[in-house]
Design goal:
The chain has helices at about 10-15, 25-30, 45-60, 65-75, 80-85, 90-95, 100-105, 110. The chain has about 120 residues and is mainly alpha-helical. It has two domains: about 1-45, no CATH class; about 45-110, Hemocyanin, N-terminal domain, CATH 1.20.1370.
């Protein structure tokens, strides 16, 4: 990720799901983007992030809890979210697609956090 990829720095960068790498930002990137003190000091890899996220997700008791957990991850770090899905496709597809997404649609009012994606109604 070079300086020309985006103009975000600091907290703005960490709050941008498309560019946030969380603990995978290198030492050089942490200096370049003003991330010192905003992240734990240890630099992690995508692999260690995936292991940690997968372990945390597997502790969830229901598929809808796993869906919400993964949706929150996508809101924070898209790179990690998509890598996690691709590396664990068989296990996670039923969570992020049918049948769990059907349950998420039925329970949308109780799990809605922010605008994301698109919304189709009978009036559309």
């Amino acid at each position: 990720m070079g300086k020309n990829d985006h103009e975000l720095t600091g907290v703005e960068l960490l709050h941008n799901a498309a560019h946030n790498k969380s603990t995978a930002f290198t030492e050089q990137e942490r200096d370049q983007y003003g991330l010192r003190g905003l992240l734990p000091p240890a630099v992690g890899t995508m692999k260690t992030q995936i292991q940690r996220v997968l372990a945390n997700m597997r502790r969830k008791e229901s598929d809808i809890e796993k869906y919400i957990f993964l949706s929150m991850l996508q809101d924070r770090n898209e790179r990690l979210f998509f890598r996690l899905i691709m590396d664990n496709f068989q296990e996670l597809l039923p969570i992020v697609y049918t049948p769990t997404v059907g349950q998420a649609c039925r329970e949308f009012a109780s799990i809605f956090r922010t605008e994301k994606g698109f919304y189709v109604t009978a009036q559309d």
